[in-house]
Each structure stands twice: as structure tokens, then as C-alpha cells.
Amino acid sequence: MAWFKRTEKGIQTPTENKKDVPKGLWYKSPTGKIVDAEELARNFYVSPEDGYHVRIGSKEYFEILFDNNEFEELDENMTAKDPLKFVDTKKYSDRLKDAIEKTKLKDAVRTAVGKSKGKDLVIACMDFAFIGGSMGAVVGEKIARAIDHSIKNNIPFLMISKSGGARMMEAAYSLMQLAKTSAKLAQLADAKIPYISLCTDPTTGGTTASYAMLGDVNISEPGALIGFAGPRVVKDTTGKDLPEGFQTAEFVLEHGFLDFITPRKELKDKINLYLDLIQNNPIR
């Protein structure tokens, strides 16, 4: 029997024989540009036509920044508890289990040490896929321990922020991480060890109010949302229309809160360039 049949309206393929295109082979950017998924990965997950920087996680950033994707993960088995027995639409303990199963991550940050362009570097990278990259006790503790590793071994520290803010299910435990991480960064500064903060889309809430804006050099990817409260909340609170591009990386740079914006494909080179400048190393 033929795989098609003719009807008065034209050639139709029986439903059971239709071949669907597998999901994930193509990506559509917010501006409507279509790009092949493999080409997108080769281009550092940046849409080549419009330069849109797709959200990526720690796996991809480690691949981009560590030489040959070789690194030692720090505190990789640390997981969150539920000290408040918090319940909203579901139990926090269940939400944690679901997030771990869905993302294959233990929490919203991964920390690691390896070489970048031949030089040692400690990186803490947040994952938005894990409960919106929210900052809980584990996030704060892992960042604090990564900073301790930097101090102990005299290694520069890079923080990659991507977060919706503090994790409401941990209440005050979450808010305490703002002070903890800021205090650790003060110790890092006292040890005269460089700290670069990379803000990616989005960097909001408690992360912006603490470690994300405390770098010796604060940098961002193009188009990233950076702010404390979201634009809608700010507009509703002030009752005023916001300037065009409000809270984009470009707006934040213009108003002096960033040092520079760099495309993702130049990220590794630029980070190492600034580390060399800070440490007064010969530029190679």
C-alpha cells in the first residue's frame, strides 16, 4: 500500500505515518530568528543572526571557561534541608526532590576549581533551572566555601550570577546568605585575591544586593536583566513609567554599575585579560 493517498483536497499522509521533527533540533530566539541547535552550541549558545544570548547553566559555562572542560567540583553533594517545614502550593521538601530529579543538580549553584588559559581559577556558577536560581542556605554556603578555597590556595574567584533572588521557602536562612557571602568577599579582598563578578540574565533580588555587585570588576553579558526588584514591581511601586531599556545590562553600564559588557564568545579571553591586569602579570 502506498504511504500516501489522494483525496479531492490533495495528497494527505495518514496520521500514524507522519514524521515529526524531534524536539530540540532548532531554537527560536525572542526576535524570531531560527537557528540549528548544533550551530547554536558551536556559537557559545548565542544566536548568530541577532546576537541573543540564550540562558545556559553551569555545565555550559564550565565548558566555555575551563581549559578542556577539566575541573574539580567542590562540595558537589551538598543538598538543602527544610528547617521551616515550609508549604506553599506544595511542600518545600517535595519541591527540592522534584528540582533535583528534573535538573540533575543538587542545588542552584555549582562550584569548581580548574585552569582557564593555563591559570588556576575558582568558579561559582548559578543554575536558573533549579528553583529559579534562588539563593538558599546551600547556595550561600557553597559560595562561602569556594571563597575559602580561593583564599587558602591564593586563586582568583569568579562568580557567575543567574538568579531570581532569595529563596522564600527558607525565609531568614536565605537572607542571612547576603551577609555571609559579603563577609567572605571582604576576607577575599583583605587577602588581595581578585574577584570578578559576571552578571547574566537574570541577576535580581538578593544576589544583586550582595555578591553580584561586589566584584573588583563587575561585568555582564549583553542584554542581561540586572536589578533588585523587577521592572513591573518598580513601576507599580513608583507609579512612574520606566526609561527605555531599564535594568538591561546596557542601561546599568551607562549608569556606572558595570565595568564592561562582553559577548560570551570573548568571555574567557576578557576574564583572563583582566585577571592579568589586576595581578600585574605580563599579558601573553
From TrEMBL:
One of its GO terms (cellular component) is acetyl-CoA carboxylase complex. Pathway: Lipid metabolism; malonyl-CoA biosynthesis; malonyl-CoA from acetyl-CoA: step 1/1. It is found in: Cytoplasm. It comes from the Bacteria. InterPro entries: AcCoA_carboxyl_beta (IPR034733), Acetyl_CoA_COase_Trfase_b_su (IPR000438), ClpP/crotonase-like_dom_sf (IPR029045), COA_CT_N (IPR011762). Gene3D superfamilies: 2-enoyl-CoA Hydratase, Chain A, domain 1 (3.90.226.10). Residues 24-284 form the CoA carboxyltransferase N-terminal domain. Acetyl-CoA carboxylase is a heterohexamer composed of biotin carboxyl carrier protein (AccB), biotin carboxylase (AccC) and two subunits each of ACCase subunit alpha (AccA) and ACCase subunit beta (AccD). This is Acetyl-coenzyme A carboxylase carboxyl transferase subunit beta. It comes from Flavobacterium beibuense.
